[in-house]
Amino acid sequence: MSKFVYLIPLFPLVSWAIIGLANRNLSKSLTGIIASGSVLASFVISVLIFMEKLHNPAAETVVLFDWISVGSFSAKMSFLVDSLSSIFLLVITGIGFLIHLYSTGYMHEDDGFRRFFAYLNLFVFFMLLLVLGDNFLVMFIGWEGVGLCSYLLIGFWFKNIDYSSAAKKAFVMNRIGDLGLLLGILMIYQTTQSVTFQTVFAKESLGLFSTEVVTAATLLLFIGAMGKSAQIPLYTWLPDAMAGPTPVSALIHAATMVTAGIYMVARCNAMFTMAPLSMDVVAWTGTLTALFAATIGFQQMDIKKVLAYSTVSQLGFMFAALGVGAYSAGVFHVVTHAFFKALLFLGAGSVIHAMHHEQDIRSMGGLRSKLPITHATFALGYLAIIGFPYFSGWFSKDEIIIKALENKPIIGYLLILGALMTAFYMSRVYFMTFWGKFRGTHEQEHHLHESPLSMTLPLMVLAALSVGGGFLVSGYVEHNLATVLTDLKHEGDNHSLHTMMWGVTAACLAIAGYWLLTVKDKQLQADAEIDGLGKVVYNKYYIDELYNSLITKPIDAIANFFGSIFDTKVVDGVVNFFGLGIHWLSSTMRRIQTGNVDTYFFAMVISIILILLFKAL
Amino acid sequence: MNQDIIAGVPLTWYVWLSAILFAIGVTGVLYRRNAIVIFMCVELMLNAVNLLLVAFSRFHNDPGGQVFVFFIMAVAAAEVAVGLAILMMVFRNTKSTDIGFLNRLKF
Questions:
Q1: End-to-end CA distance of chain B
Q2: 3-state class of A66 per DSSP?
Q3: Whole-number mean pLDDT of chain A?
Q4: Cα distance from N-terminal residue to C-terminal residue, chain A
Q5: pLDDT(A14) > 60
Q6: Does residue A155 contact residue A149 with C-beta atoms inside 8 Å?
Q7: DSSP reduced 3-state for A56
Q8: Alpha helices (runs of H) in B61-100, residue ranges in sequence order
Q9: pTM for the complete prediction?
Q10: Distance separating alpha carbons of residues A153 and A176, to the nearest angstrom
Q11: Which of A298, A464, A564, B23 gives the lowest tally of CB atoms within 10 Å of its CB?
């Protein structure tokens, strides 16, 4: 079955070509069928391959063709099918299909319907390439490709200037990370003379690395992961990326693309394990991001912004897991997070759809009776993310916390705090949206309606996965992923049961605490009324403003200096100096040409005599 | 017999003769104002050089110099043909062969 793996990325690619080329000649329903159908076909093959890998977890390489072959360097276009890539395939195509289906409903009234699906298919293609590549270069194509699609889809409504600048912001920040990744790949190639995963991670190649080199290489790779997976300090693009259509936020900026960094680090786990310093950096960056983003989530009023910061925070959890050596727990959380965060985003999309593009939770409230399916599924997603016992998030998050407590206890305690904060801000957004009284305008209230089946069906499937996903995947994580990911083992006392209870109590405490403190009888503040610490948090700690004045403004100033001063004065000055100089010289010299032939002859003879004299001397 | 006489003339005499002819040519070019005379002076200079070339060619037993002379003569003939044609046209237009007519060709 593995030899058919090339079909998985091929279907979305062909679909992209068809929709992109045919464009207006295709009816909307046909576009939806082709786009969703291609991803569904990929999903079916992914399931078959996954089933095969379930019984036979040995890694297989499928070579398609020789791609680059220069001197001793060669790179093949080839795919690696193993436990890690097959679970990612399943998540990408599975959730990808559900979101395509959802989009046929959500985007139905949009003029760019076909363009949207073309981009979405292209994204799925690149994402599949990213996780399937059996060497760093193929992964890098996918890595850049998803960045491009992310840019195109964030700026999908490009007529809005804010949206297109959000797209540019995402693109530029990702480039910073990508430079790190590229340098890391070059460093690995220089040391091992190979870019193929299985060659690089073989024992004899890893022996070529000194501690310094492996630390530098892994840190560079991690910079790439920081950019793609929105970690401090490169996280600010992700909340702004919510400018894109909601299905895009769900697919790209929650479930799949942003987890590429976790995939890459997990794929390179053999190298990261060799560099304890890098592991510390990964763990602390993840933990700080998890806490920092969660605090911003407390004060955001835009439902998608809260979810965006929640995504940043959850990605922080995953990196913390990787950093403490619990690679499989990190990947586990990627999978469960994909379920419940896609569900929450799509649920939010359904709410926004019903509210006529109102995203401010202050205008919502009491929606549980108006949108019963959306409410029920959102509630399940909410319970999953806060780690309510036996929901999917509970399995993975507690797994992370247990491993963290074993290997790096401080990280573990901070993550418990993070889990508590997650419960807090998610309770806030859930209760403010679905409980209490409706706070929007009459017109909005009149128009409230449950979304069509194409939108609610994906919600229901994802809700089922958010509830049961933990059971489904935990066995696979424990047994099959071990063939690819080597977790750090800790000798000593086992915390498991003990800490699981911690997570649960923390979650319950947070819900109750929030309920008592905020919802009961607190007046909602308008933007202008928010003050004190709340204002700082509401404005995201002014990080954007800080970057603006620290980086953007100086670069602007330098560019301005070179553009309008250096260029006009110095560069143009030099060019004009030569031009004017030659002009002056020739207008002076032309007076020598008197037209008197006698003078010419005389000059000629004298010159010849002089030349001969010089020669003689 | 004639060859012996010519061979008996020392090389320096040829050099001196050429130098004198050349100097006469240069002086003519510098001092005369009639374009036709200037032309003749230029020819004189060319032929002074030709004479020198032939003399050295004989002295060194190298026929290369004589070949070169043929080329110079051919080029000079062509030059004269073109130059005299130009002069003809100038004369028809200005009724004069004074070299001063060229002072119109300035910037």
A1: 60
A2: strand
A3: 85
A4: 91
A5: yes
A6: no
A7: coil
A8: 64-94
A9: 0.78
A10: 20
A11: A564
**How far is the C-alpha of A67 from the C-alpha of A65, rounded, in Å?**
6
Report how far residue B106's alpha carbon sits from residue A454's, in angstroms, rounded to the nearest whole number: 88
Q: A354 Cβ partners below 8 Å, 6+ apart?
A: A367, A370, A371, A374, A447, A448, A449, A450, A451
* Contact predicate A122/A129, CB 8 Å: no
Q: CB distance A595–B106 less than 8 Å?
A: yes
Q: Which two tokens stand for residue A367?
A: 């929606």
Q: How many A-B residue pairs are in contact by the CB < 8 A criterion? A: 25
Out of A595, A601, A605, closest to residue B104 by CB: A595
- Asked if the Cβ–Cβ distance from A597 to B99 is below 8 Å, we say yes
List b or e across A334-348, with b for residues whose CB sees 16 or more CB atoms inside 10 angstroms. bbbbbbbbbbbbbbb
Domain B2-99 has CATH 1.10.287.3510: yes
Whose CA is closest to A142, among A158, A159, A156, A123?
A123
How far apart, in whole angstroms, are the C-alpha atoms of residue A521 and residue A512? Answer: 14
Instruction: Report pLDDT for B74.
Output: 94
Provide the residue type at A172 as one letter: V
User: Å from A590 to nearest chain B CA?
Assistant: 7
pLDDT (average), residues A374-400: 86
Q: Give the gap in angstroms from C-alpha A581 to the nearest C-alpha of chain B.
A: 20
**Distance between CA atoms of A136 and A194, rounded to whole angstroms?**
9
How many Å apart are CA A281 and CA B76, to the nearest integer?
Answer: 89
* H or E stretch at A17: helix A7-22
Separation of CA A483 from chain center = 26
Q: What is the mean pLDDT of each run of 10 residues along chain B (107 residues)?
A: 74 93 91 88 93 90 91 92 90 84 68
- Other beta carbons within 10 angstroms of residue A406's beta carbon come to 22
B102 and chain A: CB distance < 8 Å anywhere? yes
- Cβ burial of A531 (10 Å; 0-12, 13-18, 19+) is exposed
Checking ipTM against 0.85, whether it exceeds it is no
List the single residue in A with minimal CA-CA distance to B29. Answer: A601
Of A388, A330, A375, A368, give the one whose Cα is nearest residue A505: A388
- The 10s digit of each residue's pLDDT in A71-80 is 888 888 889 8
Cβ–Cβ contacts within 10 Å for residue A254, how many?
A: 29
Find tokens 């298919």 and name the residue: A121
Q: Which residues contact A243 (CB under 8 A, 6 or more apart)?
A: A154, A155, A157, A160, A162, A163, A166, A167
Q: Give how far Cα B4 sits from Cα of A125, A285, A605, B59, Å.
A: 101, 109, 38, 13
| The pair of three-digit structure tokens given for residue A173, joined into one six-digit string | 């920040």
In chain A, what are the domain boundaries?
282-360+372-538, 554-616
Q: How far is A222 from A225, CA to CA, in rounded Å?
A: 5
Q: What is the mean pLDDT of residues A525-542?
A: 71
